[in-house]
Amino acid sequence: MSDLPAFARGLCDDASVFPPGLAPLADAVPAHRRHRAAPYAALVGPLVLPATALDQLYPLVTSDPLDLSVTAPNGPAQAAKAVAAAADLPVDVHAVEVAVPTGMTAADLLCGLERVHVPVFVEVPRDERRPAIIEALADAGHRAKFRTGGVHANLYPEPDELAAAVRAAVRAGVPFKATAGLHHPVRNTDPETGFHQHGFLNLLLATDAAMHGAGTAEISAVLADRDAPSIAARVAGLGDARASFARSRFLSFGTCSITDPLTELAALGLLPTSLIKEDA
After folding, report:
1. What pLDDT is stored for residue 63 in this prediction?
2. Rounded Cα distance, 269 and 274, in Å
3. Which terminus of the chain has fewer CB atoms gathered within 10 Å of its CB, N or C?
4. What is the pTM of this model?
5. By the 8 A CB rule, do 259 and 276 touch?
6. Which pLDDT belongs to residue 277?
7. Please, are residues 98 and 122 in contact by the beta-carbon 8 Å criterion?
């Protein structure tokens, strides 16, 4: 695992069961175990599953605990029930990822999360509640989750919007993860959908910029940069200490494919190709 640079360690949460991958659970579980035993295992975070999948998980798990992050799109009450249900399974719940229902205030959110005794990522809504919720997460020691894409164009925030969210989280001292739409390292336009997709390396560099005092316009410019060689060179130039500092805020992102980012990072010269030979 020493071949893996700091910027990549634990970067990719395994969200293979979510769109567009939609891997069946019976395939996703053994595939995740293979990833966690591969030479690139240090890249791979927990398997992300919806709370509704826990009922189907029991015949697929063994005595070797499965590392999970559980999503609760219906809010804190669903998160609490999911954590309780997972207690009867041979799994380690590393986190729950909780959406904020329409109309729920920051105070109500924190009250609902009092029964959740694992680390919490709150998917911060893209509305007027965002500043108050980020402030509440800072006060409670919770983490944020930002949606960076999806199956519809309106799920992709513009660079200015995402820059403001990153800057707010960094200024509040709130670690965050990203979900959806980060299919490639560098910002691009998907040729099939026409969606302008954020790059996960752009997001890393944007976080680094925010942590060194950049304003929203500068962070937005980093997110909008499509120059892959330049982005790769800047990531390589961070070094382990500065990359680790940025990763203390940008914790991970969910990807429906572990091998795609691995292969693309190797193609950019940021990971040794020896890590992917056994997976080819």
Report:
1. 78
2. 12
3. C
4. 0.95
5. yes
6. 64
7. yes
